[in-house]
């Protein structure tokens, strides 16, 4: 249902308009006999569209339209007037009107056209708002977002987060290709791998190392999908979304190094424990004196305590003070 604010100084015309419009659409109509009263209604309620007469006392239709646009309101506005002078129509559209219908001798035809213009204006405005919302969401996403030409690798768009992460301006990127960012000697193979995967599956998810403007390497987690050409965009494009995981990669490397070192520190005393047990068995069989066996037992106990200590350190590093393994550590442990 479309909610309409209908404004005309003549109550009879308002009543007729309500009757006819109800025949051509599902409308919720509020009426007002003056522009000033209508402005107050707009402060109190939300409407999908406004239909207004031109000739009204105190404030005419064009002044009413200007007052609405001065409030930064983009609500669809259709001027419905018996006055069809060219200068009025031009001024109406110049001030942001969405449509104009002249009152004539055929009310049915007039109101059918009025209903059509209202529906078209409301649909167009909803589409504009939806598009602006999507554009805002992409531009201000915390993820980096870029659009790239599939064939050339040329970067055609990058949002604020992408520019901030990579350290470039939009002017910098206008003449650059994705190959300018891929770091390492195998970047051509990586590009081929990504494009081959996209061609096969229509998407790619993985990790990529790129170069910032300052020369520093940055690790990214990327997702890549294709945007097929259409009537407006003739070229095949690639949509790329990414996040900076440089710190995560560094943490993973440090974590892996810690695990390897701790494993080594566990492996060595375990090996010594095995040797000590073997020696004790031999001592018992050969009847070695008790003092020597006592010393071997002390060494064995020391190595066992070291194992326990190292295992506790590893557990604390992996699970933390609360004894629960974090999702990041769990994911990493499953990977290795």
From TrEMBL:
SMART domains found in the cross-reference section: PAS (SM00091), REC (SM00448)
Q: Report TM segments.
A: none
**What PROSITE patterns has UniProt attached to this entry?**
PAS, RESPONSE_REGULATORY
| Pfam families linked | PAS_9, Response_reg
UniProt keyword annotations, A-Z: Phosphoprotein
**Which residues are recorded as modified (4-aspartylphosphate)?**
53
Check the record and name the SUPFAM superfamilies matching this protein.
CheY-like, PYP-like sensor domain (PAS domain)
Q: Name one GO biological process term.
A: phosphorelay signal transduction system
Phosphoprotein among the record's keywords? yes
Chain ranges of the PAS domain? 153-202
Annotated Response regulatory domain ranges read: 3-118
InterPro entries registered for this protein in UniProt: Bact_response_regulator (IPR050595), CheY-like_superfamily (IPR011006), PAS (IPR000014), PAS-like_dom_sf (IPR035965), Sig_transdc_resp-reg_receiver (IPR001789)
Protein name per the record: Putative PAS/PAC sensor protein
């Amino acid at each position: 249902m479309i909610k309409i604010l209908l404004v005309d100084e003549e109550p009879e015309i308002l009543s007729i308009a309500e009757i006819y419009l109800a025949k051509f659409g599902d409308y919720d109509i509020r009426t007002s006999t003056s522009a000033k009263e209508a402005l107050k209604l707009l402060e109190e309620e939300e409407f999908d569209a406004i239909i207004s007469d031109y000739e009204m006392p105190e404030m005419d239709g064009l002044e009413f339209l200007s007052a609405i646009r001065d409030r930064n309101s983009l609500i669809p506005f259709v001027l419905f007037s018996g006055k069809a002078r060219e200068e009025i129509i031009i001024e109406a559209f110049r001030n942001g009107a969405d449509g104009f219908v002249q009152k004539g001798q055929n009310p049915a035809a007039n109101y059918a056209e009025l209903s059509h213009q209202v529906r078209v204006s409301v649909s167009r405005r909803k589409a504009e708002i939806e598009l602006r919302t999507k554009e805002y969401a992409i531009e201000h996403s915390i993820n980096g977002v870029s659009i790239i030409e599939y064939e050339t690798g040329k970067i055609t768009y990058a949002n604020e987060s992408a520019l901030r992460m990579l350290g470039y301006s939009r002017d910098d990127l206008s003449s650059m290709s994705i190959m300018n960012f891929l770091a390492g000697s195998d970047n051509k193979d990586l590009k081929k791998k990504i494009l081959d995967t996209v061609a096969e599956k229509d998407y790619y998810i993985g990790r990529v190392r790129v170069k910032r403007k300052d020369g520093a390497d940055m690790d990214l987690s990327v997702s890549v999908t294709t945007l097929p050409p259409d009537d407006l965009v003739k070229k095949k494009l690639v949509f790329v979304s990414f996040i900076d995981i440089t710190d995560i990669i560094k943490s993973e490397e440090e974590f892996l190094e810690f695990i390897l070192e701790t494993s080594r520190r566990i492996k060595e005393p375990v090996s010594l424990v095995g040797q000590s047990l073997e020696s004790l068995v031999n001592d018992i069989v050969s009847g070695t004196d008790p003092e020597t066996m006592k010393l071997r037992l002390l060494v064995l106990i020391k190595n066992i305590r070291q194992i326990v200590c190292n295992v506790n350190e590893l557990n604390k590093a992996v699970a933390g003070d609360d004894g629960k393994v974090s999702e990041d550590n769990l994911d990493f442990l499953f990977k290795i």
